[in-house]
Amino acid sequence: MAKRKFTKQALSQWMKGKGPESDVVISSRVRIARNLRNMPFPLMASPEQSLAVADQLLGVAESGRLNGLGKIEQLRLSELTELEKLVLVEKHLISPNLASESRGGALILSPNEDISIMINEEDHLRIQCLGSGFQVNEAWDSASKVDDIFEEQVDYAFDEKHGYLTSCPTNVGTGIRASVMMHLPALVMTGQINRILSAVTQVGLAVRGIYGEGSEATGNLFQVSNQVTLGQSEQEIVDNLFQVARQIIEHEKSARSKLLGESRLRVADRVRRSYGILTQALIMDSKEASQRLSDVRLGSHLGLLPEVDPLALNELLVSTQPGFLQMTFGEAMSPEDRDKSRAELIRSRLATPS
């Protein structure tokens, strides 16, 4: 089945670290929120209305209008198990909100998983485009093209004064959220992170954890995104994020250089201790795994752990999550069982030659 492809493979193409500035930026994302005119928004829609919306939007894919994206797949959320939905959340292909919503939820995915189109999430349509590394403008270009295809086929809820109408007032206007997922261990280790993130929020950007709003920033991974969607054009929003993210990248690289120059032995000791624990531990909870993998990722990019394949670390970001662990080992697990299996998986993956 098509869904097995998306739930059995931990690493999407956009997580393979091939993009620019991939030592600091894991991925770039642009998400566009849209609703259909003359239909209740998902939170107020009846099950019948939600199914009608899903049928209409999936019909755009079935018509062949999206063929330029490759061999797309369509998934109805009602046909997925709770574990399969959790895995799709862990891979950032659907939101936790969509995973918990059972009324007419659906998903359209491109073959390499860089385009994910969510149906009946908080809004009728959420177009998400992802890119490896620092590729915000490229993600925006892709999202805009997909948006144009849908807009030619369906009637969007649009107001001349306020722009595109959305369920949440913070998305009204352009309906665009642009974000970058950044690995900032050096800024954390040098005590600069709070100052940097405080400055970011003062220029209209938000900082969240790896899974967006309400999630914790574990493993020194931070998601930086725009807060304002009204009163600015889409390109202005993307450009603002690009400029601020560029500055954060430079600050992180400067902090890494400082660590190497002033504390090389101490940093090398830290990353090698984490590597030793990851390759020897018999039990590993998710929080410790995130932190240890962050240390090793930093060591790999600084040349302190040349034997470690950065691709393996990107894969472990997903494959060590609770849902994916249970999918990999083919059984429901208690937290203790997951901790044992997580340690086993990490030992096995890091023991594989790069």
Automatic annotation (TrEMBL):
Gene3D superfamilies: Glutamine synthetase/guanido kinase, catalytic domain (3.30.590.10). Keywords: Allosteric enzyme, ATP-binding, Kinase, Nucleotide-binding, Transferase. Its EC number is 2.7.14.1. Catalyzes the specific phosphorylation of arginine residues in proteins. The gene is mcsB. Residues 24-255 form the Phosphagen kinase C-terminal domain. This is Protein-arginine kinase. PANTHER family: ARGININE KINASE 1-RELATED, ARGININE OR CREATINE KINASE. Pfam families: ATP-gua_Ptrans. SUPFAM superfamilies: Glutamine synthetase/guanido kinase. Appears to be allosterically activated by the binding of pArg-containing polypeptides to the pArg-binding pocket localized in the C-terminal domain of McsB. Residues 332-354 are annotated as: Disordered. Belongs to the ATP:guanido phosphotransferase family. It is an enzyme of class 2 (transferase). Residues 335-347 have a biased composition (Basic and acidic residues). The keyword Repeat does not apply. GO terms for molecular function: protein arginine kinase activity. A motif (RDXXRA motif of the pArg binding pocket involved in allosteric regulation) lies at residues 338-343. The keyword Cell inner membrane does not apply. ATP binds at residues 27-31, 92, 126, 177-181, 208-213. It catalyses: L-arginyl-[protein] + ATP = N(omega)-phospho-L-arginyl-[protein] + ADP + H(+).
